[in-house]
Write a structure and sequence with these properties.
Length: 432
């Protein structure tokens, strides 16, 4: 079969700019669509193409006419969901015979959203095995309504979803990501501030933690599933032209013993790369020697979800860290010479005092790149369930972590002015 996989264009709207003319000056990092490269891996008997609409100049109509796909698969995070709905309608207008499949983070958390006339199937959760099963059955004309993790759309009635119990087999490890399908885009995937190209690798899926605002758990049915070390090394070798590797796991060090074995194997393979990884505060405090091992094999930076500096709020979100452990983790990494990319979440309930308190903490800390997001109750998360009645903006275009979709404690304009000032101050003090 001829299969076109589509990465949607940059989406998401900005309340601060639209309502108040405030410009945050935030730049958009463009990374490769690893989820599409991954699900393409097992489809070696089919003709597969990836179209990245986040790269300027790409044309969906021209590609549909030239490639003439039988199946089009699209992925979407929440702020891209409306855009993907419009793309699906456009694809069906081009040809009703094209089978349209939607998957990704939003489909995994809120599959009913995509139960619409111009969509044929929804892939829920890890899609590498289930999407292959769907393609193989479409190719041979066999029934598709009993594939776990794949829902057949029936607009006007609720989805019938056969739950999939995700496990190692869903990783289809013998099929590597199809990095070759985006080779012509490779020079677009880089970090502007570092002026270096970056490749993506997944060593694990899911997360061993269960923060209330996080949407990652739905992808694996709340399991933490890891790739074999052998196949991680294989994937690193496939990105030979990328000097910097971003391990895009929700938690690269969710299994400390395995993380040590992986660092040993990278050293043994004499891989000369730089790495950026994700880690949790408690792991850093518990196993500081692990981060020294990774520094010695090329780890340049660690992305950490600090989220907040208020212990009560952290506990309410079921975060395991406290302000004390946050400070300890920062000291450990800085003493090792490792850069810190720290994620923080600003709540719509913030007062001026809260903004000033966080700003002062960021100025005094040794966090190299603070990243400031707005608390966003993504559909499908426990946070969304708990605050559903408070949400005043249900347009998913605004669910980009840049907007308050619940009422702000401060006057709305004041909230966004403080948010943008906090971000600009963080950028000015950025060390990368």
């Amino acid at each position: 079969m001829k299969i076109l996989l589509v990465n949607p264009p940059n989406s998401g709207r900005d309340v601060a700019f639209e309502k108040f003319g405030l410009n945050s000056g935030e730049s958009i990092f463009r990374g490769e669509p690893l989820c599409l490269e991954t699900i393409a891996g097992p489809l070696d008997s089919h003709d597969v193409m990836i179209l990245d609409l986040k790269v300027a100049g790409e044309d969906l109509d021209a590609t549909l006419s030239r490639f003439q796909p039988e199946v089009v698969g699209l992925t979407a995070v929440t702020c891209e969901a409306n855009t993907v709905i419009r793309l699906c309608e456009h694809i069906k207008q081009h040809s009703q015979s094209i089978q349209v499949v939607v998957g990704g983070m939003h489909a995994s958390n809120d599959p009913e959203f995509f139960n619409r006339p111009n969509i044929d199937y929804i892939v829920i959760g890890l899609g590498k095995a289930s999407f292959k099963q769907l393609i193989d059955r479409l190719d041979t004309g066999r029934p598709v309504d009993d594939i776990p993790g794949v829902a057949v759309c029936h607009a006007g009635s609720n989805l019938q979803i056969k739950v999939r119990s995700y496990c190692k087999e869903d990783l289809v490890e013998d099929a590597a990501p199809r990095y070759d399908l985006v080779s012509h885009y490779r020079n677009h995937y880089f970090i502007p501030s570092l002026k270096v190209s970056m490749g993506f690798i997944a060593t694990a899926f899911g997360c061993p933690y269960s923060c209330t605002f996080c949407c990652i758990g739905a992808v694996t049915g709340r399991r933490y599933i890891t790739h074999t070390i052998k196949n991680v090394i294989r994937d690193i070798a496939l990105l030979d032209d990328s000097p910097l590797i971003r391990l895009v796991d929700a938690n690269t060090f969710g299994d400390i013993k395995r993380a040590r074995l992986l660092s040993d194997e990278i050293r043994r393979a004499q891989i000369k790369k730089q790495f950026i990884v994700d880690a949790c505060v408690e792991t850093i405090v518990k196993a500081p020697d692990l981060f020294k091992e990774w520094r010695d094999i090329g780890m340049r930076g660690v992305v950490i979800g600090f989220e907040e500096i208020d212990n009560d709020i952290l506990a309410g979100w079921q975060k395991k860290n406290t302000l004390d452990t946050i400070k300890k983790s920062i000291d450990i990494l800085k003493n090792l010479g490792i850069s810190i990319i720290g994620d923080f979440v600003v709540s719509p309930s913030y007062s001026e005092r809260d903004f000033l308190k966080l700003g002062e903490f960021l100025r005094r800390s040794n966090i190299d790149v603070p990243v400031i997001a707005v608390l966003t109750p993504l559909p499908g998360t426990r946070l969304h369930e708990s605050v559903r009645s408070k949400i005043v903006n249900h347009d998913l275009d605004y669910y980009s972590f840049a907007n308050a979709v619940m009422p702000t404690h401060m006057p709305e304009r004041d909230f966004y002015e403080h948010l943008i000032a906090l971000r600009r101050d963080a950028n000015e003090h950025s060390k990368l």
